[in-house]
Amino acid sequence: MTELTPVIEMQHITKKFGSFAANDDINLKVQQGEIHALLGENGAGKSTLMNILTGLLQPTSGNILINGQPVTVDSPTKANQLGIGMVHQHFMLVDAFTVTENIVLGSEITRGLSLDTKTAVKRIQALSDQYGLAVDPTAKIADISVGQQQRVEILKTLYRGADILIFDEPTAVLTPQEIEELITIMHNLAKEGKSIILITHKLDEIKAAADTVTVIRAGKSIDAFPVAGVSSQQLADLMVGREVSFKTEKQSAQPKETVLKLDNLTVKDARGVAAVKDLSLEVKSGEIVGIAGIDGNGQTELVQAITGLTPVQSGQVMLNQKDMTNKSPRKIIESGVGHIPEDRLRFGMQTHMTLVENMMLQTYYQAPISHYGVINPEAEDKMANRLSQKFDVRASGIHIVAGSMSGGNQQKAVIARELDRDNDLIIAAQPTRGLDVGAIEYIHQCLIDQRDAGKAVLVVSFELDEILNLSDRIAVINNGKIVGIVDAQSTNKQELGLLMTGMNLDEVKATLNEPTEVNTL
Amino acid sequence: MNSTMKQTSFSVAAFSVIFGLLVGALIMLVFGYNPISGYIALMSSAVGSMQNIGGVLTQMTPLILTALGFTVASSAGFFNIGLSGQALAGWVGAVWYALSFPNLPAYVMIPSALILGTVLGGIAGAIPGWLRAQFGASEVIVTIMMNYILLYTGNNILQNVMAHGIKESAQTTKQIGANATLQMPWLTQLTQGSSVSAGIVLALVMIVVIWFVMKKTTLGFEIRAVGLNPDSARYAGMPSKRTAVVAMAISGGLAGLAGTIEGLGNYQYFFTQNSSPSIGFDGMAVALLGNGSYLGVLAAAILFSVLKIGGLGMPMSTGVPFELVDIVIASIIFFVGANYLIRIIQKRIHEMDAKAEVTAEHKKQQKSGGQ
């Protein structure tokens, strides 16, 4: 044996759901101390493969070898025993508990009838120091940052003796600075002999973190190779199976009259705390304004207030010089607002209804879809077919239940519906969250086309790449306030990242120690 | 996807009926009766005479309507337990009105009495709908309480408010006049004096009407959208509060119509009620077995009515007590409620099939590619 025995070897894994093969003869080999990226489009079969590895699903055929020994992983408990740990995308933490309490939950150290918290704290502190995680074991979850919460998730798996850590889209909720720290942590873990599987479709992160990458496309493993020496472009092309452009080509903006004007807007969140504070912003026709910020800084409430879903406490929402403050969602829609909501499944779709019914969600009561309250089935089918074609929505038919479509096609359906109404203002919140590069490219082009057609476009995103790629102007939101508005041409990720943490433009300039040409508008 | 979902709910219903009948058979066995002759007696009694067929149709009529009412409410995300009280509102109102205007011609009296009963039931349904839409009050609690309010209000109207002239005794009204009855002489004759009325035709028509409203109109679209995902309905600009109230009003209106037909068709009078009329609760059971399908509602209403009317013939010929029918109906509903269990059993069977196939294939491959 010249080759080292891999820590994990998944051989010829096939998983069929009915006649559909989610995984079709996939091979994956992970060496000890390696960061191995799993790259693939949405629906390529990454999650299915990882669910098989963590015991949530059983493969239809194929073998799993751990350290060269064939094993059956028939339950998550078994996966735990085999040293496989998962760092979930959505943290599974109890807010009111301390870091230690969360970590020991389910495998508490007891002394008689009471918990031995002291020993647990010591152990967690030791683990935290060993891997450079810098987490305070006695802090409450509610009091620590999202980045630290993720480290608690990492500690949780380490505490349970995991040697193989699976990171599922770990950077979705992090700031650029936190992402850098996470990558350092992953390198530390690998140095100490842990093996890491990184699931992502962000190519930069693979370049920065991973040693090896396995590309999965349409349920098959296409290729596995060292990351060094491969460009992001090559990775993207391999993943999608064709050439992909990252930078969406666009002309410079031709902003005209103001479409949306927000004056000193204050909005409370569901708990009654002010989430948007005295915020003012303008979006003109023919421009894309991006709102950059970390999740939970008032973006959701801001969008809901503009669209009439949440009451405005004070201030004004003006649309085409008309006061739309606290008008009903239907009035606002009818006045020419398209809204691609952040939560597609909760707001954007009726997942139990058909694609046709979703396509007519706002226009069902108008001609030609219905007359005198009776829906015309031919008209609705015609519209759904037209929209599906125009916006490349791929489904096995327009009468398919929307919830059974892939995420990318669901989002395209929402976008088709919202852009087709010929609106003056398009609000796109996280328009490409969870989608693969192919779909992202398409959706970005759609939004830029809207801008070029003279619409006002407001994009809210946690992805700086998306903000930078799309926007003409970027407004950074922190704690419910716009802390700075910069020109997309002359800013960079570093500057935006610092603004997102709440620094104002002057502080940022001082920190970066290089006065850039930033326009405060 | 859609058709497989429909298939699953149909097979859940079929499984439930079979299991329910098996439970009934088991209980008959335990108590020393012959289940086969018990069920034969039930069936032959249900369809054995024109009178009993008339009885089945009479039984079915309010069940179809209350089940439709329950289905509309649950499409909008409401659990309407108040069908019983809403039916009572229609019954009391329609009978009182019919007795108060004995001289109105039938072509004025009958439509106006039907509309009045429906509207009264609709109001009784709209109140809990509005309370939830406006204040978030649980419709389950409100409708249960309203059942009591309507029960005792109805009894009080009968005992203390109605004019003496239209009452037979303190506990019962007089019979409604010929201008208000829904019974038809030829139908009564055909069914050997059963109390079947034109109400059954009305109930069958309502199945089509409600199907049309729910599947083909903008109102039905709104009701379904609000029921399936209220956030998305609000996002789409639907008037979700108004839709919820309207859905509950339709639900209550259907129950009110059921009560009206009981009053003007089946009983022809009103009498002091000891408890909320059972048509409300039986209608829920029919709707649950029908599982949102309008044809399913019809089939379930026929089944339950056959069981109830046929059950009356069981004690005579086989000695099986009538109460057994209630056990069977309750078991069927239990299995519908436990449909999760049935789905799991079905899934397991599928998985075992799939696994067996795979192992067989695997073995074949190993053999052909063996060392």
TrEMBL record, chain A:
GO CC, one annotated term: plasma membrane
SUPFAM superfamilies named among the record's database cross-references: P-loop containing nucleoside triphosphate hydrolases
Subcellular localization(s) per the UniProt record: Cell membrane
Signal peptide: none
Presence of keyword Nucleotide-binding: yes
Keyword list, A-Z: ATP-binding, Cell membrane, Membrane, Nucleotide-binding, Repeat, Translocase, Transport
An example Gene Ontology molecular-function term: ATP hydrolysis activity
InterPro entries: AAA+_ATPase (IPR003593), ABC_carbohydrate_import_ATPase (IPR050107), ABC_transporter-like_ATP-bd (IPR003439), ABC_transporter-like_CS (IPR017871), P-loop_NTPase (IPR027417)
Membrane-topology descriptor: Peripheral membrane protein
Ranges where the ABC transporter domain occurs: 8-243, 260-504
Keyword Membrane among record annotations: yes
Protein name: ABC transporter domain-containing protein
Organism expressing this protein natively: Leuconostoc fallax
Phylogenetic classification of the source organism: Bacteria, Bacillati, Bacillota, Bacilli, Lactobacillales
Automatic annotation (TrEMBL), chain B:
Membrane topology: Multi-pass membrane protein
Compartment(s) where it occurs, according to its Swiss-Prot or TrEMBL record: Cell membrane
GO cellular component, one term: plasma membrane
Chief site of localization: membrane
Keywords attached to this entry: Cell membrane, Membrane, Transmembrane, Transmembrane helix
An annotated Gene Ontology molecular function: transmembrane transporter activity
Transmembrane feature ranges: 12-33, 53-71, 78-99, 105-127, 134-152, 194-214, 244-264, 284-307, 319-342
Protein's name according to its UniProt entry: ABC transporter permease protein
